[in-house]
Amino acid sequence: MARPSRSEFNARTQKMVGSLRDAIVQGSLQTGDYLPSEVELGRTFGLSKESVRRALDILVEEGLIAKIRRVGNRVKGPFPSQESNEAAAGRTGGENTGGGALNPAASIARDEGRREDLSTPEFSIQTGQTVLCLAYHSSLQEEVKLQEAVQAYEALHPGVRVRMIPTPFPLDLAEHGMADVVTVTAWDALKLKDKDSSMSLFADAPPTDYAHPILSRPFQAEDGRLTTAPFVYSPLVLCYNRSHFAECGIAEPGEDWTWYTLLKTARTFNKQLDARGFVVHIQSINRWPVFLLQNGFQFNTGKGKRTAEDPALWESLRISRDLIYQQGDSVLWTDSDGDVERWFHDGRASMILTTFFGLNRLRGNKRLDYGVAPLPSLSSKDTLLLTTGLAVNRRSDSQEAAGSLIRYLCGQEVQSGIRRGTLTLPVHPGALTLPVEQLEGNRPHGEARVTRQWDRYRLYSDLHLSTHVLEAISEELKVYWSRLEDEAEASERIEVLLGV
Q1: Torsional sign, CA 145, 149, 152, 154
Q2: Which domain of life is it from (predicted)?
């Protein structure tokens, strides 16, 4: 097929700009709506990503849309005059053509994940309801059945309607004034504190009950102010296939296990079973730091020695690399934690490093006989604690209603529902201790052993390093894990990142 000529590309660009402009001016696209993704626009109009962006730049210049970083392209208002529209049409090289080429009704999402105007006070003129915008990590729908909980809240509070926006970046929406309530992970909170130690983006957290003070630690500002109400949590745990252990005549993991015990056991499974002995998404920032935490390692200790030459660092990283190469040169790289849980679900992995969030992918597999145990140890039995909380945007005009929603979601009724219907761990002490016979789904053996080991839980902040440097080190370690450099070379590269 012949490559389109420059004139054809120009015509397509004009068609895209004209279609979107008409949709905005005529009201098919309203203030606060989001345009389709750049990929979808490119597919609709036969344009490259670069051409789509140039076309969108024209609409930005006209004041019709705004580009929101890491979110999308949002319709602005008020609209320009007819004269400015005509002038803008001249800049595209012709008049508006093909105004009906884009069907906004089909392309623009106007479901419970959108709101009519995400930057104005949250009030629906049509219904007289307060409208709250909840920006949340999309995985929470599976992990806590969030939509059902929100619907129950709305039934109890008919004067409030909640618009739900699933997004990888809830904090970005909060920073742009586009969300009243956001979900916040421990990692999100630490990144925010790196930029603003007072965490001024958030109002004070509404008072809620949670099982242990460590659950709130990630969400405390430098002055001790609690900015985010703890919602759910999970430690990193070892998950294992009980049938594989029975088939090979090996005792199930216990308190005496070290990572070297696991490595030996994994090699046995590799030889005797048609399965990988142990799998972990080692590149994840939610995984590899646990090896450092177990050795009590800290960056920037100020003891006058080169951090990257600390034996505790390299013992930690060495065992992580040994686990990758448990089967010699046969390495199984993963794209995500989801790969790990899927392989375990299908019986292709005997042991995995995971969380109770991830275990939800196993809940429906009634044939799987599996268990969880504390992580094997290095110099300690510590594990990484992952928490997710709920925060009120300080810029929200509906802070009272936002606080009410958070108190409901963190209350015993919703939290007990999370405990019963998922494998995610609720923070409410009454929900966390529900009798086993009330819990649904295929649940792991030994669950009680790991859900409340408070003295073993450690946080990212215990490493004493900023998030951007920790992320940079994570990228550098990929070279070390791939055996493309030795410890001395990796040490030099890490020292550079640490600014030594």
Answers
A1: negative
A2: Bacteria
Domain count within the chain: 3
Separation of alpha carbons 44 and 337, rounded Å: 33
Identify the bridge partners of residue 349 per DSSP, sorted by sequence position.
276
Q: pLDDT value at position 40?
A: 76
Q: Where are the alpha helices (DSSP H) in 131-258?
A: 140-144, 146-156, 170-175, 186-195, 242-248
Structure tokens of 161?
Answer: 């309607």
- The alpha helices in 181-275, defined as continuous H runs, are 186-195, 242-248, 259-272
The amino acid at 189: A
pLDDT in tens, 215-233: 999 999 999 999 999 999 9
Residues 54 and 190 placed together within one structural domain of the fold: no
Give domain status of residue 381, yes or no. Answer: yes
Q: Which of 191, 219, 190, 189 is nearest to 205 (CA)?
A: 219
Length of the chain measured in residues: 500
Residue 201 and residue 148 share a domain: yes
Q: Tell whether 337 and 476 lie within a shared domain.
A: yes
Residue 195 maps to a domain: yes
Q: Which amino acid is at 235?
A: P
0.90 exceeded by the pTM?
A: no
